[in-house]
Amino acid sequence: MVMKHYPPEFRADAVALCRSRLGATIKSVAQDLGVNHETLRNWIRLDDAQRTEASASTASASAPASPEEENAALRRRIRELEEERDILRKAARYFAGETRW
C-alpha cells in the first residue's frame, strides 16, 4: 500500500468540510475527496485534540463576562463560518472541474 502525503491545507480543508456537512458520514466525505476514510478520521482526531488543547489554555472560553467579550466571541464564530463557507466554495469549484486543489 502506498502512503500518500497530503498538504496541511488540504487536511484542514477536508476536516472543515467534514464538520460542515451535517448528516454526512466520514466515509462519504472521504470518498468525495478521494482519501481513505481512516485517514480522514485520523485528521479529525488530531484536530479535536488540538482544539481541546487550545480551549483548555483559554480560560475565558466558557461564558463571556462582558458584552465586549461576547462580541469578540461572536466575531470569532463569524470568521469560522466564513472560512467554512470559503472551503465549501473551493470544494464546489474543485468538484465542478474549474480548479485544482
UniProtKB/TrEMBL annotation:
It comes from the Bacteria. One of its GO terms (molecular function) is transposase activity. Residues 54-73 are annotated as: Disordered. Residues 54-66 have a biased composition (Low complexity). InterPro entries: Homeodomain-like_sf, RD_transcriptional_regulator, Transposase_8. One of its GO terms (biological process) is DNA transposition. It holds the Pfam family HTH_Tnp_1. This is Transposase. It comes from Saccharothrix espanaensis (strain ATCC 51144 / DSM 44229 / JCM 9112 / NBRC 15066 / NRRL 15764).
